């Protein structure tokens, strides 16, 4: 069959908020033109993030009913630990309330001020946790990723030449660990190849530097490997995932992505000394090591979700959904990051709005226009999120002006995406009308969450 269908049917529904254009215009102004400040009840199709926004399966809900809420040594913990070990092979596994809690424990226990942590691209919470303890988070994306419009594969790879030069220049002792983020969210949701991971591991091992996987979207990455990488087509996703983890000495995970859960995460490693320090800080900040900030029922939902994320049918449908939106936008001439990523389509706001410069924040104009037109919420990944206001008041722009339309897992159907396509098409036809925006107020850090804007 050519038609790839959603591999589930719907047993429970949640009404979509339907709004009028007049209402959206009024809510947008009240939110100071910042979509983070909207009530979700005013959003019809919410593509703000794929994190914690997925729909759980009947098997997950059934497992939740069996949650064992014992403080120590609960049955749910055993189930969670066994599943995570089955997939990752790690000796030590610590549940955390979400991904950034795992990152915080890793950074706080392993880093001294001025230590360096390279990554293909750090996600913003990973970078913030490293910098919070005085470390230096360095991005080494593959040169392939520079041209956002090329269809090259594995643009999420790490630049291993740059990694070798960094180790040479700074010395292995300045690099307590290296990270790889799969898929590479900050780089457009692009995957990392097994080959790149194997070569990175060999290079790092020669210098005694451990490798830690940011595994949030490990299952989506495994599917790209199966589809694209030579010699991988016949391997089950679980097998590929196991090899990805086997190349690493530890992992941080947000179960809000490929755990198919609404909350949760974990930190894992093989080294006993690392584990002892992780455990001590975990008890202080997250909870006892057999629940780590989660309820027993959350551990159950994650244990089931991690395995569901590795089902072929599920990944085939998931990638087909992203491709569906991407291919239709490409056919209409809408500029997007290519190839389509695993969890999102990234619009090129600079290409979409050639009449605007980075100082006009074209990503804000575009997300606001999509909201106004169809009640669709995306997120700006451009000069608001990654640019900076200097002390003299001038703006340093980001290298790219993107808008991310992230796909919650198992939530929206094909007709919802047809609606999104029509919304984008309509905005694209009238794109010259997208106004520039100014920042009226901003916080000193992570300004995108709370900034207030005005058009014109
Ligand atoms: N690493 C990556 C690659 C991520 O994308 C995220 C979260 C995290 C770590 C942190 O995990 O949210 O559970 O603390 N990304 C979300 C997003 C928020 O919208 O892309 P968390």
Automatic annotation (TrEMBL):
Membrane spanning segments where?
A: none
- Name the SUPFAM superfamilies for this protein: PLP-dependent transferases
Q: Which cofactor does it need?
A: pyridoxal 5'-phosphate
Keywords per UniProt: Lyase, Pyridoxal phosphate
Q: Does the keyword Manganese apply?
A: no
Q: Cite the Pfam families for this sequence.
A: Beta_elim_lyase
Recorded superkingdom: Bacteria
Gene3D superfamilies associated with the record: Aspartate Aminotransferase, domain 1, Type I PLP-dependent aspartate aminotransferase-like (Major domain)
Q: Which GO terms describe its biological process?
A: aromatic amino acid metabolic process
Domain called Aromatic amino acid beta-eliminating lyase/threonine aldolase: residue spans: 46-422
| Record carries keyword Lyase | yes
Q: Name one GO molecular function term.
A: carbon-carbon lyase activity
Residues modified as N6-(pyridoxal phosphate)lysine are: 257
Q: Which InterPro entries match?
A: ArAA_b-elim_lyase/Thr_aldolase (IPR001597), Beta-eliminating_lyase (IPR011166), PyrdxlP-dep_Trfase (IPR015424), PyrdxlP-dep_Trfase_major (IPR015421), PyrdxlP-dep_Trfase_small (IPR015422)
Question: Which proteins does it associate with, and in what oligomeric form?
Answer: Homotetramer.
> What protein family is recorded?
Belongs to the beta-eliminating lyase family.
Protein name per UniProt: Tyrosine phenol-lyase
* Organism of this sequence: Methylosinus trichosporium (strain ATCC 35070 / NCIMB 11131 / UNIQEM 75 / OB3b)
């Amino acid at each position: 069959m050519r038609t790839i269908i959603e591999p589930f049917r719907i047993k429970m529904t949640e009404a979509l908020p339907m709004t009028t254009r007049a209402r959206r215009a009024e809510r947008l102004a009240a939110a100071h033109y910042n979509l983070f400040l909207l009530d979700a009840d005013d959003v019809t199709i919410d593509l703000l993030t794929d994190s914690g926004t997925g729909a759980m399966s009947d098997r997950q809900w059934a497992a939740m009913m069996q949650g064992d809420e014992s403080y120590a040594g609960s049955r749910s913990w055993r189930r969670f630990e066994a599943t995570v070990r089955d997939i990752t092979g790690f000796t030590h596994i610590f549940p955390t309330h979400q991904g950034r809690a795992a990152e915080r424990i890793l950074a706080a226990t392993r880093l001294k001020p001025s230590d360096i942590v390279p990554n293909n691209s750090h996600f913003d919470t990973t970078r913030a946790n490293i910098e919070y303890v005085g470390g230096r988070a360095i991005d080494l994306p593959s040169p392939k990723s520079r041209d956002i419009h090329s269809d090259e594969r594995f643009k999420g790879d790490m630049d291993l030449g740059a990694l070798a030069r960094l180790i040479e220049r700074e010395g292995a002792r300045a690099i307590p660990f290296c990270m790889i983020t799969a898929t590479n969210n900050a780089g457009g949701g692009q995957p990392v190849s097994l080959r790149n991971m194997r070569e990175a591991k060999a290079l790092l091992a020669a210098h005694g530097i451990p490798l830690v996987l940011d595994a949030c979207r490990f299952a989506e990455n495994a599917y790209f490997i199966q589809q694209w990488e030579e010699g991988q087509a016949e391997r089950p996703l679980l097998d590929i995932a196991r090899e990805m983890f086997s190349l690493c000495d530890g992992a941080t995970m947000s179960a809000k992505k490929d755990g198919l859960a609404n909350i949760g995460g974990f930190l894992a490693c093989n080294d006993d000394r690392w584990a002892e320090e992780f455990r001590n800080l975990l008890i202080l900040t997250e909870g006892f090591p057999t629940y780590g900030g989660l309820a027993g029922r959350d551990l159950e939902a994650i244990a089931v979700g991690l395995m569901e994320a590795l089902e072929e049918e599920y990944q085939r449908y998931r990638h087909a959904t992203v491709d569906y939106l991407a291919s239709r936008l490409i056919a209409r001439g809408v500029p997007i990051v290519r190839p389509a990523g695993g969890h999102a389509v990234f619009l090129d706001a600079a290409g979409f709005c050639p009449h605007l410069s980075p100082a006009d924040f074209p990503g804000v104009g575009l997300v606001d226009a999509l909201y106004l037109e169809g009640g669709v919420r995306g997120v700006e990944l451009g000069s608001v999120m990654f640019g900076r206001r200097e002390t003299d008041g001038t703006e340093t722009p980001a290298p790219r002006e993107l808008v991310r339309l992230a796909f919650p897992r198992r939530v929206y159907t094909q007709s919802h995406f047809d609606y999104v396509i029509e919304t984008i098409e309509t905005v694209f036809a009238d794109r010259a009308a997208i106004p520039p925006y100014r920042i009226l107020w901003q916080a000193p850090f992570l300004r995108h969450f709370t900034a207030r804007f005005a058009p014109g």
